[in-house]
Specification:
The protein is an all-alpha fold. It has five helices and three strands. InterPro entries: E3_ubiquit_lig_Bre1 (IPR013956), Znf_C3HC4_RING-type (IPR018957), Znf_RING (IPR001841), Znf_RING/FYVE/PHD (IPR013083), Znf_RING_CS (IPR017907).
Length: about 325
């Protein structure tokens, strides 16, 4: 605009000079007036152009200031982002370390649990053997007592019969009829003795059956107690694992204030929960492992497979036996 105004001014001066040279003296004054007016108009335009240039310079300086402030803010944001990235890396490393420590602790806990279960089973077996030996001892003592009682009873009967026989021999010479009666009495007593022996044999059989039933019921009771102890132990283990998971979540929430990090951790937690679920029913958590292929499933699904004819792993179709199924406490 300034250059254009100057060009206009030069043109106006040129026009004025041309007018001065070309025009006559009569129209010279009018032309001079018009030239002066054109010069005033050009000066006004020049002043307006200079004012606009000053405004543009002020705007340029304000824009430069804004650029400097924005660059400073961008540098501070970049520094904050680098600090956040370093914090995220440290959190990830600490999380990996915690995972490795938890895996080691879980391995140690599983080994201790297996050792404790073995000790409990051995103790139960020893108790069962002790109870069986005590039962056998009591049975033998009762049988010995019964045999002694029956021997005493038979001895008493034999003594009575001998007395009766002596009395009969004494009176045999006098009374033949009494002798026949005594012989009949003797036969009757022998029949009764045989009946008593038969009844004692039946009583012994019924006693042995009842003792076997009691022994079986005790064995079933001991097995139920063992299963109850296992279930209580598994429930306690699950409660402890749940409490540990809650504590970890609370620590991670306290450490990470940003909502994006919490959402990522929640997503990872959902993925880990899906990993811990059984791949057959997708509902229950993994409880047992097949030692042939080391695949994890829930106990009911594995029990269904073991009850079938073809025992094969649902994950890799490897055949296994019921002894290959072991409990796992995750």
């Amino acid at each position: 605009d300034v250059l254009a105004a100057r060009d206009l001014e030069y043109k106006a001066w040129a026009h004025v000079h041309s007018l001065k040279s070309s025009l006559d003296e009569q129209s010279l004054e009018l032309r001079v007036k018009t030239a002066i007016e054109a010069e005033a108009i050009s000066q006004q335009r020049l002043a307006a152009a200079e004012a606009e240039i000053a405004d543009m310079r002020q705007k340029l300086e304000a824009f430069k200031r804004d650029m400097v402030s924005l660059s400073d803010a961008l540098k501070s944001k970049n520094e904050e982002i680098e600090a956040y990235l370093s914090e995220i890396e440290t959190i990830g490393q600490s999380y990996d370390d915690m995972q490795t420590q938890n895996q080691q602790l879980l391995q140690q806990i599983t080994e201790r649990d297996d050792y404790n279960i073995k000790l409990v089973l051995e103790g139960v077996r020893a108790r069962q053997l002790q109870d069986a030996l005590l039962m056998d001892k009591h049975m033998m003592e009762s049988e010995i007592q019964q045999a002694n009682a029956s021997l005493n009873f038979f001895d008493m009967k034999a003594a009575r019969i001998e007395n009766q026989l002596r009395f009969c021999l004494d009176q045999a010479q006098r009374l033949a009829e009494d002798r026949s009666q005594n012989s009949a009495n003797l036969e009757n007593t022998q029949k009764r003795l045989s009946d008593v022996r038969k009844s004692s044999v039946q009583v012994r059989g019924s006693l042995e059956e009842s003792q076997s039933k009691v022994y079986k019921s005790r064995l079933t009771l001991m097995e139920l107690q063992i299963e109850l102890v296992k279930e209580r132990f598994a429930k306690k283990r699950l409660e402890e694992d749940l409490e540990m998971g809650r504590r970890k979540v609370l620590r991670l929430q306290a450490q990470t204030e940003g909502s994006s990090i919490i959402e990522e951790l929640q997503q990872e937690l959902r993925e880990y929960r899906e990993i811990l679920k059984c791949s057959i029913c997708l509902e229950r958590p993994k409880e047992v492992v097949i030692t042939k292929c080391y695949h994890l499933f829930c106990n009911p699904c594995v029990q269904k497979v073991t009850e079938s004819r073809h025992r094969k792993c649902p994950g890799c179709a490897a055949s296994f036996s019921p002894n290959d199924v072991k409990p796992v406490y995750i």
